Amino acid sequence: MAGDSLIEYWAEILARTPVSPEVMAHSKRVLDHSIEAWSRALSEVMATDDFAQLLGISIEQWLKTQTAFTGNPAPPPVPDKDLTGLAAEVRRLDDRLRQLEKRIGRETTKPAARPEAAGRRRPRRRRAA
Amino acid sequence: MAASGTARLYCYEGRRSHETPLLFVPNLGISRPYIFDLLPGASFVEHMTQRGFDFYLLDWGAFGPDDGELTLEHCVTTILPSMTRAVLQTSGASELSVLGYCMGAPLSAAFIAADPDIPVKNFIDMAGPIDFSQSGLFGLWLQRKYFDVDRVVAGLGGSVPAHVIRAGFKLIRPTADASTYLNLCWNLWNDQYVETFTALNTWANEYVPVPGAFFRQWVRDFYQDNKLYRGELRYGGRTSRLHTITCSLLAVGAAQDYIAPPGCVRALVDAVGSTDKEYIELPGGHISLIAGRGAMHTCWPRVSDWLAKRSGPAADSRRSAEADGDSSKHRRRR
């Protein structure tokens, strides 16, 4: 009932108002500028470290609340924590190991590569008189 | 044409007048790819097929709670290579063009940059962030000191549900809905506007979950560590270095893009080793760049013209053009 009377009221207002295309276009421009101004203002607020920090905290709180309500505790983050970081670490270790193996290989094959050096006798050590 | 896990490759056949087929790589999760073939007369796929390109759409699929373990690394090292092979085999071409939209662009760039032997002739980045240090609000909010991605994904049960994705995108532009509905009110008598609005709005409110493992790598490696741009992204034992990309490159940024601001898209042009490269900035936002009736006048012709010059004529293009006349319909082949 209240809704009907409101519609009637607006219909009456509109009937009395000379709504020309220019007025409509002007209203649209005003609304567009108003929305744009709000958007700019909000974007400025959201582009701050304070907002980012607040957002981070809010997400954490929301997750905690959700977990409390659903009764399903979140799976512990430990097993999947930084799996890609761990994989990168393993890969780095693997590369390092391979480098070490290569170096060891080079060191061990050095004498064999110079047979004349291997056959050469070491100078005999003389005992001091 | 091909399948890998939830991912499917679709081929849209049209009047083929270019030798080089086009592989379209959209974002994974977040939204559905039918936006690119929204309505007759307002479809990017239709536009490209009418311009004579064989259009291959990679649909990453919809993800459920069981798909939480799909990683970004798997997409780059396994799915993209297999889809590329499928495109080349099906089309019989020796080279292909890749068009990455949104998240699909850095994924494609990581894939191309990891292996210089991939026969990519042309690469187009449409609204795809590359330098994440310039990625705007998302870049700020997702910084490691504010956003612990492991805890969030674990707290969400292993994947990021659609309503959380929706909240993130609504937050980045809180007044977007007001603006959208105001424009609708002002165009209620315009049937074409209302038709496009209904289709676009249905799509815009249909969010898709993102697998947890994928989201972790996406946030950590791209937003937090900016590894692709810094040449430190290493997946499957290969490092993706952008300067190894030497194919023809077009980067398209949208002036009012809040998700991938123009600066972070443009960065690709300076990072690659290509000599034939170009950046264009067009009016519009992240979605209106590629979808809707505005895009068909501002963006699509620029992209198809650029690509046409670099895709070579198909051997039978002249003959089929004469025979077909106007082939306005495109067919989807699975």
Describe this structure in words.
The complex is a heterodimer of chains A (129) and B (334). Chain A has 129 residues and is an all-alpha fold. Chain A has 5 helices and no strands. With 334 residues, chain B is an alpha/beta fold. Chain B contains 14 helices and 15 strands. Chain B has helices spanning 44-50, 72-91, 104-114, 136-141, 149-155, 162-172, 176-186, 191-204, 212-224, 227-230, 262-271, 295-298, 300-309, 317-324, and strands spanning 2-4, 7-13, 22-25, 30-31, 55-59, 96-101, 120-126, 159-160, 207-208, 210-211, 233-235, 238-240, 248-254, 277-282, 331-333. In chain B, strands 1, 2, 3, 5, 6, 7, 13, 14 and 15 form a 9-stranded mixed β-sheet that branches. In chain B, helix 3 links the parallel strand 6 (96-101) and strand 7 (120-126). In chain B, helix 2 packs across helix 3 and helix 5 packs antiparallel against helix 9. The termini of chain B are close together. The model of chain B is unreliable at 318-329 (pLDDT under 50). The A-B interface holds A 24, 28, 31-32, 35-36, 38-39, 42-43, 46-47, 49, 52-53, 55-56, 59-60, 63-64, 66-67, 72, 74-77, 80-84, 88, 91 and B 71, 73, 136-137, 140-141, 143, 145-148, 150-158, 171-175, 178-179, 182, 186, 213, 216-217, 220-221, 234, 237, 258.
Keyword list:
A: about 130 residues; mainly alpha; B: alpha/beta; nine-stranded mixed beta sheet; about 40% helix
Quick synopsis:
The complex is a heterodimer of chains A (129) and B (334). Helix content of chain A is 77%, strand content 0%.
Order of helices and strands of chain B: EEEEHEHEHEHHEHHHEEHHEEEHEHHHE
In which range does the helix fraction of chain A lie?
over 70%
Structural class by sheet pairing and helices of chain A: mainly alpha
What do the pLDDT scores of chain A average to? Answer: 72
Structural class of chain B: alpha/beta
- Percent strand of chain A: under 5%
- Beta-strand content of chain B: 15-25%
| Total E-strand runs of chain A | 0
- Total count of helical runs of at least 4 residues of chain A: 5
Q: Approximately how much helix is present in the residues of chain B?
A: 40-55%
**Weakly predicted, low-confidence segments of chain A:** 76-81
Largest interface: A-B, 35 and 37 residues
Rg of chain B to the nearest angstrom?
A: 19 Å
Overall outline of chain B: globular
